[in-house]
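Hi all, long-time lurker, first post. I run a small reading group and we've been trying to get comfortable going from sequence to structure in the token notation. Rather than ask abstract questions, I figured I'd post a concrete chain and ask someone more experienced to write out its structure so we can walk through it together at our next meeting. Sequence below, copied exactly:
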Amino acid sequence: HVQLVESGGGQVQAGGSLRLSCVRSGAISNNYCVGWFRQRPGKAREGVASIDSDGTISYANSVKGRFTISRDNSKNTLYLQMNSLKPEDTAMYYCASYDSAYVCPLDHQSYLYWGQGTQVTVS
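-- Answer (accepted) --
Happy to help. Here is the structure in token form:
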């Protein structure tokens, strides 16, 4: 059973930076999609960034140029470096994954396994 555990959230002032981490365990397949999603108060969950096993990356337009997704397969860890944070980035951030050999979508409905989330607050 795949488990995902996020960390690194917190409170930061606008213009600041945070780095989120997500450790993936319990998986067998080496071909999988991982992504970061967020849910702002009163809003639907939305895709932020995704990366497949070959390193192909997708970003939501709202975070392009500010956020960077990366993965360290040797550590089974996914990262999200968030720079130039804005108040509208305030949300609960989740990492998610599912087994796939294809480019990873930003559609949260495609993802099977989810972490518990980490709160990011930008003031």
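A couple of things your group might point at:
The mean pLDDT is 94.
The chain is about 0% helix and 50% strand.
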